[in-house]
Amino acid sequence: MRTSTKSPHPNLYSWFIEELDPTGRKIGPDYKPWGSNLHFNAKNLRVYRGLTLEDGNAKASDGIIGALIPSEGRRHTAVVYSFFGTNRPVDTITLRIHKSEDGREVCALWGSVAYVSEWDFEEVRTPDTVEVQLFLAPSRFEDLVKFIEDGRAKGGITIRHVEGVYAQWSPSIRTDTVKLLGNIEDQNLQIEPGADHIPTVLGNVGYFEYRFHKGGRSEEVVTNNDTPGNQEPLAPVAAVPDLGPSLAALQVKVARLSIPLWIAAIAAVVSVFIHR
């Protein structure tokens, strides 16, 4: 792989990452940083309890773990994720939720391309790995633990503005293929000589929302819409297609109206005729 500033659409993106075959021929599209929504359904959520002893001090290592499945919507298919330099779809995406030690609530995306290591004179292959990691304030974490510890909770998460995520440019703000950059050296990404950009690797997530429920979608719901820094609340995962921040926010406002818009519109027309 290599970066290039020879963009065919410089007004849309000034640089991109391209993949090459062994002969140096380009394969696939231009991949630019992708900042729009990525939706996942969560399953097999469970709580684990742990304790670590170090230098005579005990420290709890509780957490929540589950599996994430790229979700489909009415206007988009499930996204296929793979690492640059491979054509293997990532089979497993893990969700890990931890208690924040400093009270801050943050989200990160971590990943590593498959590798082989030696353990006890045997070669062990670790597959392509991707994890979404949430760190929640202690009170919110404990509330979430109580909510899902009976094993009935399900739901999903939405993330966007994610470092290390690349896709082909699309005017629809949707994509069905995402390429991941976990490490520049390990994935042998060549930076164009003299380039003034360094591609980001998997790391910070600018916005995240989780929404878990039991029973129907409107029963016993927990979410993190009030997380500081999340300025663009979304509707429930899979209820709002990936239409961009402004339109998604507008849909949320419309959904919260006490009177449907079509009823309000009819009432306005009737009012006009009555006052004539």
UniProtKB/TrEMBL annotation:
Domain of life: Bacteria
Protein name: Uncharacterized protein
Keyword vocabulary terms for this entry: Membrane, Transmembrane, Transmembrane helix
Residues that span the membrane, as ranges: 254-274
